[in-house]
Design goal:
Radius of gyration: 19 Å
Strand order of the largest sheet: 5-4-3-8-7-6
Order of helices and strands: HHHEEHEEEHHHEEEH
Distance between the termini: 33 Å
C-alpha cells in the first residue's frame, strides 16, 4: 500500500472534527486534529475556498451544506453502529472474563476507544471509553497496519510515535505486523502496557477504521486459550460488521 498524502489525510480529519455540527476556531481545530496551527490555517482556507467549510462569527469554521448533511449522516451511522455493538461487547466481556473494546481511527495518528465491554472479574484491567493512543500502539496498531498493508516508511512513522513501556526494535515490530497479516490478528505482549497482553482484529471492511480488542493479564492464558480467544474475536468482528450491513440495507434497497 502506498503512503497516504498528508495534506489529504489532514483535510479529512478536519471534516470529521466538524461532523457533529460544532463551529470551531483555528486553535480548536488544530488541537483536535493534531495539526500545527500554521498548516491548519492553510488547510482551513483551502477548504473554505472550495466550499467545504464556511467561516462565521468569531472566526469559527463549520461545514457547509451539503457537506454537513453528508457528515451528519455518516456520524449518525457510526453512532448507531457503536450503540448496537455495545451489548455484544458487554456479553463477550462477561463470557471471556476480559475487557473487550471497539476502537476507531481518529484522523491520521490516533486511535480512540469508542465502546467498551468491561470484565466482571474481581481483578480487572482498567480501561475507559474515550481514551486515545497512537495509531501504531498496542495490538490494535498492529492489526490495523496489517489490514491496511502499510508500507515500511509509514510503519516506521507510526512506530516512532509510540512511547513503549518495554523496549522493542523497529525490525521486531515490523515482524509482528507481518505475523498479524498471516494470522489475521495483532498481538501486544506487555510492550505497550506492562503486564498486559492484548490482541485485536480489524472489522472486515474496506475502510479498516474499526477494530475490536481483548486484553488479559500477561501469562494468565495458555497458548490454546489465547488462540481460542483470537478465534472468538474474529467472530465478534464479523458480527459487528454485519450490523453495519443491516444498517445500510434499507438505503441500498431504496436506490436499487
Amino acid at each position: 500500500m502506498s503512503s497516504p498524502v498528508p495534506s489529504v489525510v489532514q483535510a479529512f480529519a478536519i471534516v470529521r472534527a466538524l461532523a457533529d455540527g460544532r463551529a470551531l476556531t483555528l486553535s480548536e481545530v488544530a488541537q483536535t486534529c493534531g495539526i500545527s496551527p500554521s498548516s491548519c490555517l492553510g488547510l482551513l482556507r483551502t477548504l473554505v475556498g472550495e466550499g467545504v467549510l464556511s467561516l462565521g462569527e468569531g472566526k469559527r469554521y463549520a461545514l457547509s451544506p451539503p457537506w454537513s448533511e453528508i457528515a451528519a449522516s455518516d456520524l449518525d451511522r457510526a453512532t448507531r453502529l457503536v450503540a448496537r455493538a455495545r451489548p455484544m461487547l458487554e456479553r463477550a466481556a462477561r463470557v471471556w472474563h476480559a475487557p473487550i473494546g471497539l476502537w476507531r481511527v481518529i484522523g491520521r495518528d490516533r486511535l480512540q476507544l469508542v465502546a467498551l465491554g468491561q470484565s466482571v472479574a474481581a481483578t480487572r484491567i482498567h480501561m475507559e471509553e474515550g481514551q486515545r493512543q497512537p495509531i501504531g500502539s498496542g495490538a490494535v496498531g498492529r492489526a490495523l497496519a496489517a489490514a491496511q498493508r502499510v508500507g515500511r516508511d509509514e510503519l516506521a512513522r507510526r512506530f516512532a510515535a509510540v512511547r513503549w513501556q518495554r523496549p522493542i526494535a523497529f525490525d521486531d515490530y515490523a515482524t509482528q505486523v507481518a505475523e498479524a497479516v498471516a494470522q489475521g490478528y495483532g498481538v501486544d505482549d506487555g510492550l505497550s502496557y506492562a503486564g498486559i497482553a492484548s490482541l485485536a482484529v480489524c472489522l472486515p471492511d474496506d475502510a479498516h477504521s474499526l477494530c475490536v480488542s481483548a486484553s488479559v493479564f500477561a501469562g494468565s492464558r495458555s497458548e490454546a486459550e489465547f488462540a481460542e480467544l483470537a478465534d472468538a474475536l474474529h467472530q465478534l468482528a464479523a458480527d459487528i460488521a454485519a450490523l453495519d450491513q443491516k444498517q445500510l440495507s434499507p438505503t441500498r434497497k431504496a436506490r436499487a
